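ok here's DUF5333 domain-containing protein:
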Amino acid sequence: MPKRVIAAFATALCLGAAAAAAAKPPLREVPEIADGIFTIVVANEIRKKCDDIDGRIFKGIGEIRRLRARANELGYSDDEIRAVLDSDDEKERMRARGRVYMAELGLNYDTPGDLCRLGRLEISNKSAIGALLRAN
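and the structure:
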């Protein structure tokens, strides 16, 4: 084989490998980011709907900043991150995930008081969700 053909083939292999390395899954499929967003969305739902539970707003902002920094480390731009955080579809996916999570605990999102029960349970368990909440 001529040297030019070998060099072109080697270059193509390198470019293909670089493209494969640069390809990243959608941010919602990165577990550590998706789980962090889930935590924030659930805590925010509880905070908004339960009069006897407040959100730890600064802690929540800190968590969002931590997730953004981690996503940046993984190669995602701020625009990609914002698109996920601002997406109504993504928020609804997280709410659906929350409904499943509640059902696993014997709670129902649509039953009055169950979301607040979840909040108190998360606070008492000192979970990631509970860390973003405070009982009044």
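+1. The helical segments are 3-22, 31-49, 57-73, 78-86, 88-104, 114-124.
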